[in-house]
# Entry
Amino acid sequence: MVRVRFAPSPTGHLHVGGLRTALFNWYFARKTGGKFIIRIEDTDLERSKNEYEQAIIEELKWSGLDYDESIDCPGEYGPYRQSERLEIYKKYVEQLLNENKAYYCVYDKENIVYENNILEDKYKNNKNYSIVIKFKVEKNNILSFNDLIRGPIEFDTNYIEDFVIVRSNGIPVYNFTVVIDDYLMKISHIIRGEDHISNTPKQILLYKAFSFDIPEFAHLPLIVGEDRTPLSKRHGEVSITYFRREGYLPNALLNYLSLLGWNAEEQVFDYREKIRDFDLKNVSKNPAVFDYNKLLWINEAHLRNDAIDKVLKDFEAWIDYSKIDLKTSDKSYVKKVVEISRKKVQTLKQLYEFSKNFFRSDFEYEQEFIEKYASKEWFKDVINLAINKLSNVEVFDFKNIEVTLKEISNQNTTTKKNIFQAIRGAVLGRLVTPGLYESLETLGKEETLNRLNRALRLF
Ligand code: GLU
# Structure
């Protein structure tokens, strides 16, 4: 049975690289009918924070990648938070000490004063000494494994020093806990970033020391910036929080992250439909360049073309997340606004900015509208005429509005363009809006007339 895991350390927010790793594990699990597990690796007590753990889980949920076992949906191999597994690790550390495969290393201020697999009493609980436990690396061995993406990889143990497995605070280190957990959680494939390749030989040494079966490894290519250095803050925002806040669609982000290392032919797709095609064999060895413009372009494509109900759900979720009150509980109204606005924007945030005046009648008018239209001597005549004609429209739909506005614009008070822009600005406060007929249809007759009257009062 395939079991894979994504094992974030809660020392910061979820990073695009982290979500890409989660996504590729997810693809593999879903393709093979296996399980996708989230394990929280919080043994770095100083840097791990509960708020990051919550944020990571929340952001994974937002992304839509469903998982099978984790801290909030335990399976039979938990706990899934490493800080709750310290007793388990202890047992395995003792086993290595007993078998003389690990030893205590005692330091006074700077120097090593003692090394043995049994700790003498005088060092115990003595503030003058710090004690770590090290794993003994047998020299003159060649370790090899077959990386499912990169092919065979070899390491010479002569280049690997004995390494710390338990820190002086008594907490075991990542390279140790990861092996125990992957073994006990029956992880079959370890799919993670290329930056972990250098940890793999140490982990393999531990698997061997315990006679555990060694899982398969697959190291995903690094994500780099345009300058080919590992993607970091220097290149721009990298946290999922940022992309969420800016109004990227989860589906668009996962679509784009799929392309980082996997050369799918299509560029815009529903990532759930790509499960069938996913194969670690097709993952590239070369670094993947993170291209913010391409991500934006993919976001725009999803925003415009995905099923309207999906986009509506994402928009409502973004509104909630941004703590915005749309002041309406009329879902079908919100849906109409999204439908007529989405073709003109690239993100949910822009969608909101673009359409927010649909949700409030007390909006401010753009300066340009006031200068070019509302302050003109013909303005009131045009608005009065619009009020007259539109109040006679019985069925206030696109077609009738179109006919009526065309009639109004044929009056010779001013140019057609001026008349349309004057009405547009009067009802929505701005000069760039969705199409005017559909805008009025969406607002409805009563609201359209209210807004025209308001403009008449104010200018
Ligand atoms: N906690 C490690 C990290 O966040 C996980 C590495 C691994 O997948 O083995 O990088």
